[in-house]
Design a protein that fits this description.
Length: 234
């Protein structure tokens, strides 16, 4: 394979070998992509795993990762795309398209685009080649997810604010959040005050803890809850 890679990487444009990874906690989509890519010598599925962490433990020598949006480990699309980008790996999300909030989360982390699970073989191949070349994967689903909800004005939160929001909105008290982050409850409350102010300025008020949970999900700080989950998520 190394000689194949060397020859491919000496070529230009679409002839270059694209090293692909896939993250999905169900095996059947992986089998489908694996079978499809066998027919395309320039697209090489190098590794697959149920989580981004497990994939990176296998290899970081990847150009593109195909990422399922809803993973059982509770990670968000935003954090997964961000983690992969830290290794110089581009991300294309792979979805049935029914969760636009999750697509927006991936978009805000600079994922290159989306491949619908209902897409044709040619569309999937073209998308992976585009991503391997560093180009956006532009589809109707991607555009609709990003532009279809004008009420979701962007809110810029510092990393510490993100952590406070995620913990508090998940059900922790100010005391619990402070203990987790090694700060005082008063400091946590000050962060929450600033977070609420930022959302209010963006026209997305957070009067209750449930409102905070909704904003955290909308912006990718928390994963979308599965049906039947309770607590602040309900």
């Amino acid at each position: 394979m190394s000689s194949q890679r060397s020859e491919a990487e000496s070529d230009v444009g679409s002839c270059a070998l694209v090293r692909i990874g896939m993250v999905d906690d169900h095996p059947s989509p992986i089998w489908g992509i694996e079978g499809l890519l066998r027919h395309h010598d320039d697209l090489d599925l190098r590794a697959s795993a149920a989580t981004v962490g497990d994939l990176l433990a296998q290899t970081t020598e990847l150009d593109v990762v195909i990422l399922d949006l809803r993973l059982k480990d509770g990670t968000t699309p935003r954090e997964n795309v961000t983690t992969l980008s830290e290794y110089g790996i581009a991300t294309v999300v792979y979805t049935s398209g029914e969760h636009p909030a999750l697509l927006r989360s991936a978009a805000r982390a600079n994922a290159l685009g989306v491949i619908l699970k209902s897409a044709s073989e040619d569309a999937i191949v073209d998308a992976l080649r585009a991503a391997g070349d560093g180009r956006a994967v532009l589809t109707t689903a991607w555009a609709a997810a990003i532009d279809g909800d004008p009420d979701l004005a962007a809110v810029d939160l510092s990393p510490q604010m993100q952590r406070v929001l995620a913990l508090y909105a998940s059900g922790e008290t100010s005391v619990g959040v402070g203990r987790e982050l090694n700060v005082t409850p008063d400091t946590v409350n000050e962060y929450l005050k600033r977070i609420r102010q930022k959302y209010a300025e963006a026209g997305r008020p957070t009067r209750t803890k449930i409102d905070l949970f909704k904003r955290a999900v909308e912006d990718g700080w928390l994963p979308m809850p599965h049906r039947g989950e309770g607590g602040a998520q309900s």
